[in-house]
C-alpha cells in the first residue's frame, strides 16, 4: 500500500503482515483477532491502522481484552510503530491520544475494560 504524506515528499510505506492478518488492510468498521501470545497481532494492528489512517481520515479505537489504563493499552506500541514507519512528522502523540495531520484520531478517553465489560 502506498501512502502520500501531506505537506512533504510522498513516501512509500510497505507493510508486511502475516497472511492470517492480511484482512487488517481491508476497510471494515470492526477488526478483531483472537489467539495466544506472540502472534504478531499488536504490531500488525499498529502497522495496518497507522498506515490506513495516514491514507484517509479515520477515527480509531485500539483496545485489548484486559486494559486497566493507558499504560496497559497499545499506546506505546503505536508510538514505536509511528517512529519505525517514519510517520512521526504526520502523527502527533499525546499522553492519551494520537492525532494525524489529516484529522485521523484515536481515543481521547479510556475506561478500564475487563473481559468484554466496560466499567465506569
Overall description:
The protein is an alpha+beta fold and 120 residues long. The protein has a single domain, classed as 3-Layer(aba) Sandwich (Rossmann fold). The chain has two helices and seven strands. The strands form three sheets. A three-stranded antiparallel beta sheet has the order 2-6-7, with no helix packed on it. Strands 1-5 form a two-stranded parallel ribbon. A hairpin with a 2-residue loop joins strand 6 and strand 7. Helix 1 (41-55) packs across helix 2 (75-84). The radius of gyration is 14 Å and the shape is globular.
Under CATH, the homologous superfamily reads P-loop containing nucleotide triphosphate hydrolases
Rg over C-alpha atoms, rounded to the nearest angstrom:
14 Å
Helix and strand element order? HEEHEEEEE
- Count of DSSP H/I helices: 2
Beta percentage is 5-15%
Dominant shape: globular
Tally of distinct domains: 1
Query: How many β-strand runs?
Result: 7
Could you please say which CATH topology applies here? Rossmann fold
SS content category: alpha+beta
Contiguous uncertain segments of 5+ residues:
1-6
In the CATH hierarchy, what is the architecture at level 2?
Answer: 3-Layer(aba) Sandwich
CATH class: Alpha Beta
Sheet of most strands: 3 strands, antiparallel
Terminal-residue CA separation? 39 Å
Strand order of the largest sheet: 2-6-7
Specify the helix fraction band.
10-25%
What is the average of the pLDDT values? Answer: 77
Amino acid at each position: 500500500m502506498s501512502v502520500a504524506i501531506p505537506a512533504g515528499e510522498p513516501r512509500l510505506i510497505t507493510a508486511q503482515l502475516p497472511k492470517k492478518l492480511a484482512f487488517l488492510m481491508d476497510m471494515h468498521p470492526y477488526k478483531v483477532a483472537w489467539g495466544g501470545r506472540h502472534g504478531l497481532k499488536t504490531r500488525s494492528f499498529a502497522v495496518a491502522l497507522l498506515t490506513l489512517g495516514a491514507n484517509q481520515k479515520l477515527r480509531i479505537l485500539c483496545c485489548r481484552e484486559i486494559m486497566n489504563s493507558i499504560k496497559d493499552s497499545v499506546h506505546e506500541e503505536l508510538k514505536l510503530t509511528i517512529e519505525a514507519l517514519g510517520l512521526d512528522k504526520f502523527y502527533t502523540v499525546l499522553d492519551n491520544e494520537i492525532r494525524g495531520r489529516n484529522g485521523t484520531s484515536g481515543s481521547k478517553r479510556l475506561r478500564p475494560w475487563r473481559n468484554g465489560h466496560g466499567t465506569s
